[in-house]
Amino acid sequence: MTGQEDLPEPLRTWFATRGWSPRRHQLAMLDRARAGRHALLVAATGAGKTLSGFLPTLAELIEHPADGLHTLYVSPLKALVIDIQRNLLGPVEAMGLPIRIETRTGDTPSDRKARQRVKPPHILLTTPESLSLLLSYPDSFTLFAGLRTIVIDEVHAFATGKRGDLLSLCMARLQRLAPDLRRVALSATVADPDGYRAWLAPDGDIDAVDLVEGEPGAEPDIAILLPQDRVPWMGHSGRYAAEQVMAEIETHRTSIIFCNTRSLAELIFQDLWKVNTLGLPIGVHHGSLAREARRKVEQAMADGRLRALVATASLDLGVDWGDVDCVIQMGAPKGSSRLLQRIGRANHRLDEASEAIVVPGNRFEYLEARAALDAVEAGELDPDLFRPGALDVLAQHIMACACAAPFARDALLDEVRAALPYSALSDALFDRVLGFIRDGGYALKAYDRFKRLTEDNGVWRVSHPKFVAQHRLNAGIIVEATMLTVRFKNGRNLGKVEESFAAQLAPGDTFFFAGLSCEVERIDTEDLVVRASTRPARIPTYGGARMPLSTNLADRVRRFLATPAEWARFPADVREWLEIQRKRSILPEPGQLLVETFPREGRHYMVAYSFEGWNAHQSLGMLLTRRMEAHGLRPLGFVANDYAIATYGIEPVRDPAALFSADILEHEFVEWVERSHLLKRAFREVAVIGGLVERQHPGKRKTGRQVTFSTDLIYDVLRKYEPTHLLLEAAWADARARMTDVGRLAGLLDRAADTMVHVDLPRVTPLAVPVLTLIGRERVATGGSGEDALLIEAEALAAEAMRVD
Questions:
Q1: What are the start-end ranges of the E strands in 489-526?
Q2: What is the dihedral of CA 712, 718, 723, 724, to 10 degrees?
Q3: N or C: which end of the chain has fewer CB within 10 A?
Q4: Which residues pair with 518 in a beta bridge?
Q5: Alpha-carbon distances of 211 from 41, 198, 201, 418, rounded to whole Å
Q6: Which ranges of the chain have pLDDT less than 50?
Q7: Which domains are delineated in the chain?
Q8: pLDDT single digits (tens) 34-84
Q9: Model-wide pTM > 0.90
């Protein structure tokens, strides 16, 4: 085993002058490197993971100086790339080492990118997308020939998604270019180490990757912030606590306030400014901000010039700002792993407890926050779900390989199968992907613009140099979401809604917007064309993307409901809420699906407590109201949160089991997806990633409207003439798996018949209040008298539910 005495002298001196000693897992990583072993390091935040990853590189470059690219560092975030460079340059300069360290992201100037390919640094810090682009150049064969190590930081953040697919393919290519390449991955939150070892390993050989576990750190100090009077019935953002959050900011050196959506981050930032009586410097950071604005805020944090920063997931991972001594999570965290990551931004020291505060939005969110704290204490992380690689990503990677050099079909297939997500790829499916890149498919092959590859005697090459330039301008996995303009047919503009919401609508659907009940007429490119309707709005609107509630936290909340012995830990008003629910109705057991029905003010309500997350419930609401319509129940609408879904209509629901039967996915789901804009939206993303539609031309970027128009035209052609097209199948896979949480939805429906407990009641129950308070929120702008009226209405609803008689 390598000991401190085995470190090169400059490293020993650097540690000694700071009064430090290398940690056991840091020396273990050096030991694995000298043995030529791949390694996965799982260590707590503040344990020195970054130095663990780079220590072998620094030692080798000290002992065996050499020119050329030695180590690639791959991060999921541009902000983390910049932060790592800043933190790595300090030790290198302190030791006086002639080691050059540079970054390469989408923000890097083009002249520096060109120079890096000719005269690369010793260590290059980059992202999966920038690495893929590097591999598209002919000089990649010489650039990477001497590559010794690739370090993948925060591997859990992208390994199981499309960016992970791309990175896995890139690693397979790098391994062919540099057979002795050593792979290293780092993470603080990995629930399935063996899954990540297999993903990291060449050819999926899990035994080739050693697991190195770090020393346990101090237990985090996490508190749940309770309002000054009582836990609210409604809301999911914690905005009510602005003054209390500001008081925490005033008593700490530097705080990060995490929000789950970009729109909420902007609202919280404004709320805090209104109560910032001391005029403390506060910033905001999220992915929609301009690069200059993000860099300015990041530098201000690094310099210690901010007292607080309101941020989204853009700062979840790895960024090390030593003066941060408090993290505040607005709203429930939705997962224990995410909470741990965010807590880790405080102190960033292994031997000091990280201080964090969770601000629940309502009573269910209080239970979720308590469940998250218990999960963190128990060391329970959210599950990592690996799945087969996406075909649109594979198409993009194949095109990148072709841009670098012509390739032989069998050799490239062998290389692709060395990446775990594509290890089971069949010959036939690989040939379908090649055929798609060659001519676009049967329905598009008459158009030269889709003929990107040419095959000649088993060798595939790019058909024309223009396709090389097109690929490099447009490659990437992240497709920016767009907003749709809501307008009348006469052109009157009502505002904008998230495309993810509009994608689920079909002609005839009604929803509230700008105080009106709007009926959808059609969706044209980026316009949602509506007309004013006298019918009640059936579908609610909500702002911002939603993080899914993890199954682990959902299960823990279920257990809370069924275990009264746990209630002593809860605030008095939360205990009372649960106790009266138990008297008035029932509290579901963990395996049960409780469905309550009751009348109220001339409507009939059905509330199902399934705990499957807002995304699944939103999809289910669409399907249930359509089925209720078919059954003559005259539904008026539905609302949903992470824990329950509530429908309301003119006629009472006597037999909920008939509405929840599993065949709803075989019939109504397919019809809904095909009628809605959902499939078109999914197709646009796979078409852009797969290279069928370009986002940029030389010197000009297409607008979102132009991209949508192009993909919609192609979509309509393929649906009519080639419904089995590769990208249509990929779009269906995306629509089912990612956009609707259909897996959780299917599980709910499969077990509904056997686990449903139907309770018919004379009036609303306490458990139903948090979801029913959502009815009407879409009718008013935030704040003002309309918001006050809703609060009064919610209080009346809660009083009715909590009355015992």
A1: 493-498, 510-513, 516-524
A2: -110
A3: C
A4: 511, 532
A5: 6, 11, 12, 20
A6: 318, 541-545, 778-786
A7: 4-213 (3.40.50.300), 221-377 (3.40.50.300), 391-479+675-727 (no CATH), 483-532 (no CATH), 551-671+742-802 (no CATH)
A8: 999 999 999 876 677 788 889 999 999 999 998 999 999 998 877 667 777
A9: no
